[in-house]
Amino acid sequence: MKRMMIVTVAVLAATCGAALAQTATAPAAEPPAAAPVTTLGVPLVEDMVGRTVIDTDGQALGTVHDVLLDPNGAARRLVLDRAGGAGRVAIDFTDVRMRSDSADLHVADLRAADLARLPPFEYDDDAVSLNRGDPDADARPPR
User: Fold this and answer.
1) Per-residue pLDDT reduced to its tens digit, 3-24
2) Is the CB of residue 79 less than 8 Å from the CB of residue 92?
């Protein structure tokens, strides 16, 4: 009787194990890699000086001359040397993005006509920036 019980338990164990093995699901496949993102965000502040700024129509607005900083050292505005030597203007830092297909900086919702309506930029006494007071700032070539 003992022998019969041991054989029965062994047969049941083997049968259940085989049945469980057949119903087990395969591990989930890895999800496909995401497509490359074209907007890279904002580059390091130090890397912005000298870069060309492109508008929504693909036209060059100018070159970054300086970056204005807030009291905590965070970038707030970019000072541009306008294309064609039309003087300097300041634009909001938060409007600027980099793209994976270009070394230039790009702005959304800003065109050359909009830039022409901005007042000429002049440093005030309290302005803190990367280039202010740097004698070589005007001599640096664009990137």
Assistant:
1) 444 444 444 444 545 544 555 5
2) no
- In one letter, which amino acid is 127? A
- Please provide the DSSP assignment of 17-35 as one string: HHHHHHHPPPPPPPPPPPP
Identity of the residue numbered 11: V
Nearest-5° Cα angle at 60, 123 to 45: 50
Mean of pLDDT values over 16-45: 51
> Based on the number of CB atoms within 10 Å of its own CB, is 79 exposed (0-12), middle (13-18) or buried (19 or more)?
buried
* Three state DSSP letters for 31-94: CCCCCCCCEEECCCHHHCCCCEEECCCCCEEEEEEEEEECCCCCEEEEEEEEHHHCCEEEEEHH
pLDDT of residue 29: 54
DSSP summary character for residue 131: S
State the Cα–Cα distance between residues 23 and 27, nearest whole angstrom: 13
| CA quadruple 133, 136, 137, 141: dihedral, nearest 10 | 180
